[in-house]
Amino acid sequence: MITIKVISFARIGWDPTLSFAPYRSESRLKQRRWVQAAFGEKDTLRTYEALQQRETCIFLASLMQTPEDFKLHITRFTVALIIETVYGHRVASLDHEYVMLMDRGMEAMNATGPAGGGIMDFFPLLKHVPAWMPGASFKRKALHARKLIHDAHYIPFDMVRKAVASGDARPSFAAELIEKAEKSGRLDGEENDIRFAAGALYAAGSDTTKSVLLTFLLAMVLYPEVFKKAQEELDRVVENNRLPTLEDRPNLPYIDCVVKETYRWNPAIPLGIPHFLTEDDEYNGYHMPRDTHIVTNLWAMTRNEEMYRDPSLFRPERFLAPSGSIDMGVEDPRSIVFGYGRRLCPGRLFADTTVFLAVASIAATLNIDKARDAQGNVVTPSAKFPSSFVSFPEAYQCAITPRSPNVMALVEETLANILSST
């Protein structure tokens, strides 16, 4: 059996959360049960569709108005969805208090290095080194990250708890759990579990979705023929007087393959979440004693030439059968990148539907091309992904324009209809 015990993450304050809590602990079981019920069931996912569509429309409008700020718009889109579903707060801009608070925590975490790749994970004795010692910058980074991550867990949660107490709380994951715990007299015992379950949702969903969408845009810049095929499929299936919805997904197999290929081409967490063995094990003739540090190289799995021919190329067709339907004989990267076994991400369905809706909506309304420099020369970005806990493409530029003059009006009309019905 495998459990998670990552020293570097424990030192910065993630050890009580769903992703890192001991496997059989009551705390972890409760957190997973709550998240699964809220985000992992197909019936409950339908309750988020209006929110997903609303935020997608705002995202599209922002891309049309200031396309050069596409990275900021992706950030606002991803965090707005998470913060509203988890804490009940609507996010109008990146200046929102909770956005800045949580982004600082995520940036500090990414600065500590890849998952399980921190120096304290390889040399555990270093956790006893004082932060003031020369050469102990890793310890100072960890202490800085711990303070920011503590604030990211406590401040939004405390605001929701106060709102529940005053009767002003908007519907959200945290508010519902707080209300139930209060009614049953269990809040004092469950407060920390609710707090860390909410924090884990933000950490797991914001940067990873941001990574996927930035990777998608980069791929469309580098592989324009893929984007053209995606647009052609949308034009055949979706009427030009509306935007795509999640109900269109069964009829958009190529778009679905583009999403799969985006997951495969750059797994958001390339080394996965590291684990430790709780008992002796053997793999391919190698004996692995208890407490062995296990890092699952998702990047290598998704670049395995035996599974995916020409893995460095972005080729959604690898997932299509000759008939044009999904080829079920090709390994779906979602079975890898969202985790596996009993550590499978319980929020994966919400994340996947969010990504699909964003990808389909971008293809339906926008053109994505290479940017040009001040002299008018085409700028071709590189497909490089610097090492970090969450993998983001190296900074790049692109040109984003509306597909037609009436697209903006369509987006605004769709948004108005959503707002009037919610």
UniProtKB/TrEMBL annotation:
Pfam families: p450. Keywords: Heme, Iron, Membrane, Metal-binding, Monooxygenase, Oxidoreductase, Transmembrane, Transmembrane helix. The keyword Secreted does not apply. Pathway: Secondary metabolite biosynthesis. It is found in: Membrane. GO terms for molecular function: heme binding; iron ion binding; monooxygenase activity; oxidoreductase activity, acting on paired donors, with incorporation or reduction of molecular oxygen. Heme binds at C345. Its main location: membrane. The keyword Zinc does not apply. One of its GO terms (cellular component) is membrane. InterPro entries: Cyt_P450 (IPR001128), Cyt_P450_CS (IPR017972), Cyt_P450_E_grp-I (IPR002401), Cyt_P450_sf (IPR036396), Cytochrome_P450_fung (IPR050364). Its cofactor is heme. Belongs to the cytochrome P450 family. PANTHER family: CYTOCHROME P450 (PTHR46300:SF5), P450, PUTATIVE (EUROFUNG)-RELATED-RELATED (PTHR46300). This is Cytochrome P450.
